[in-house]
Design a protein that fits this description.
422 residues; 20 strands; globular; binds adenosine-5'-diphosphate; binds aspartic acid; binds magnesium ion
């Protein structure tokens, strides 16, 4: 008997019909002789709607209360799913993240899992029941307050439970047939990738390909949990995320895909005095505010003024916090002003084969130029090149890079079964 962890995203359980369809799929897995643990997200766009609601009553809702509100979304879907399964004649028990033993740190809105103690899930399985767990939530070890893991975090709940329960596989069910060479919502000719390494999937997720939550891939890699991404709307095989595709019948592609991210903002600290220690002070202030930075660029200082500009990107959701933290040290550092721009997008090219193929960067930049798009910032790693562009140019830049690296499928094979792309 195998232990299977299945995660169903919001678009798979968007309405009562969806919940019933997913329940059928779960029961089929159980009937095939498996123990089944299910992680479920909030229905459709519930989480976004709850955030909108919170913002209507307060421009900056307290983190503790926002987490309490958002976790309600997953509570609704887990209970409905358990009812739908009961209606098919099987026992299902739903559990909140806290009941399932998902213990986190106390960082509201982006809590990290520090331990998983799934005693109640084990007991449910031992008694022959299907366990349904609310995704994206846990309980803080110290304060005992309810926390959330960050947007898209149900994927991470699933992998963390799979690791704690020594599951045989973690299946992530969503609204497309697996991982594609680009987001099929903006590149209809994107190709489905049958197998991808953790390393490449990590870069894709880090660069905004929201098909998998970044921390879910990190966790899976650390605990060697095989992930199987597929659609809950079809029977297609999907994508397997594995250690390495060496030793399989697949040839290593030079480029695995193009990812994009519209969730970041850019802050420019204008007129920073060009002297030792200024960058250290700026970035210490941001680190103390617990802000994760992405790209950083410091311009050459103008000889006439002895001042320079420093720009960096960060999650737009941290924009207000960063601006006020920096404004507080304006006098001390002596910079002139701050500029904030959240109408940016990041486009990234990812591929392990880049290491051994010179010329990839030049070809990527040419493709961006051919699309008539101006590059604002650049950063690279061994297996990735990223550029920041105007938000309105993202789609054109992605499509052009995808074409330039011959990633387009001859016939359109990507199907988007549901979801609003929100
Ligand atoms: P779920 O609600 O199931 O968690 P998400 O919306 O979080 O679904 O993730 C699935 C979406 O990810 C797809 O509908 C697609 O638009 C988007 N996506 C972005 N990049 C990719 C990619 N490279 N391959 C597949 N889907 C992608
Ligand atoms: N419902 C949460 C969100 O929309 C978590 C998830 O879907 O993974 O971000
Ligand atoms: Mg998701």
């Amino acid at each position: 008997m195998a232990l299977v962890v299945q995660k169903y995203g919001g678009s798979s359980v968007a309405d009562a019909e969806g919940v019933k369809r997913v329940a059928q799929r779960i029961v089929a897995t159980k009937k095939a002789g498996n123990d089944v643990v299910v992680v479920v997200s909030a229905m459709g766009d519930t989480t976004d709607e709850l955030i909108d609601l919170a913002e209507q009553v307060s421009p900056l809702p307290p983190g503790r209360e926002l987490d309490m509100l958002l976790t309600a979304g997953e509570r609704i879907s887990m209970a409905l799913l358990a009812m739908a399964i009961a209606n098919l004649g099987h026992e299902a028990r739903s559990f909140t993240g806290s009941q399932a033993g998902v213990i986190t740190d106390g960082s509201h809105g982006k809590a990290r899992i520090i331990d998983v103690t799934p005693g109640r899930i084990r007991s449910a399985l031992d008694e022959g029941a299907i366990a349904i767990v609310a995704g994206f939530q846990g309980v803080s070890q110290n304060s005992k307050d309810i926390t959330t893991l960050g947007r898209g975090g149900s994927d991470t709940t699933a992998v963390a439970l799979a690791a704690a329960l020594s599951a045989d596989v973690c299946e992530i069910y969503t609204d497309v047939d697996g991982v594609f060479t680009a987001d099929p919502r903006i590149v209809p000719t994107a190709r489905q990738i049958p197998r991808i390494s953790y390393e490449e999937m990590l870069e894709m997720a880090a660069c905004g390909a929201k098909i998998l939550h970044l921390r879910c891939v990190e966790y899976a890699r650390r605990y060697a949990i095989p992930i199987h991404v597929r659609s809950s709307f079809s029977q297609r095989e999907g994508t397997r995320v594995i250690e390495s595709i060496e030793g399989t019948d697949m040839e290593q592609a030079i480029i695995s895909g193009v990812a994009h991210d519209r969730s970041e903002a850019k802050i420019t600290v204008v007129g920073v005095p060009d002297k030792v220690g200024e960058a250290a002070t700026i970035f210490t202030v941001l680190a103390d505010a617990e802000i994760n930075l992405d790209m950083i660029v410091q311009n050459v200082s103008a000889a006439s003024t002895g001042r320079t500009d420093i720009s960096f990107t960060l999650p737009a959701t941290d924009g207000q916090t960063a601006m006020s933290a920096l404004n507080k040290v304006k006098e001390r550092i002596g910079f002139e002003s701050l500029r904030y721009d959240d109408r940016i997008g990041k486009v990234s090219l990812i591929g392990a084969g880049m290491r051994s193929h010179p010329g990839v960067t030049a070809k990527f930049f040419s493709a961006i130029a051919e699309a008539g798009v101006n590059i604002e910032m650049i950063s690279t790693s061994e297996i990735r090149i990223s550029v920041v562009v105007d938000g309105d140019d993202v789609d054109a830049a992605v499509a052009s890079a995808h074409r330039a690296f011959d990633l387009d499928a001859e016939q359109v094979e990507a199907v988007v079964y549901g979801g609003t792309g929100r």
